[in-house]
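Please review the protein record below. Tell me whether the encoded fold seems credible here:
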Amino acid sequence: MARLNKVARGKHRWIGLSVSDRKLSRLDCQNKLESELKHFNSKLFDFINVENELLAIIKVPLKNYRESLEILNHHGTFKTITSSGKIILVRERLGIKVMRKKR
């Protein structure tokens, strides 16, 4: 199957979050994000514990970016830390290292 070209995929933003509830699993976090951002087609990509802090990275469409930030910052569980158009920059700012699989 052919891959969509860059324009057809649409513009998006990656948002780095701090998760205050230490008891949340990845699935719980994903469900909570889906309920908060149900109309925005967001997707959880990374959910990791770095130095006793739960961090998450989500992808949201550019047209819903500002509204997503407002919702996330007014929710008690999440606090936005950084955002970018490139996931590599968000991971770098949060101190997340990703191991690449060798092909």
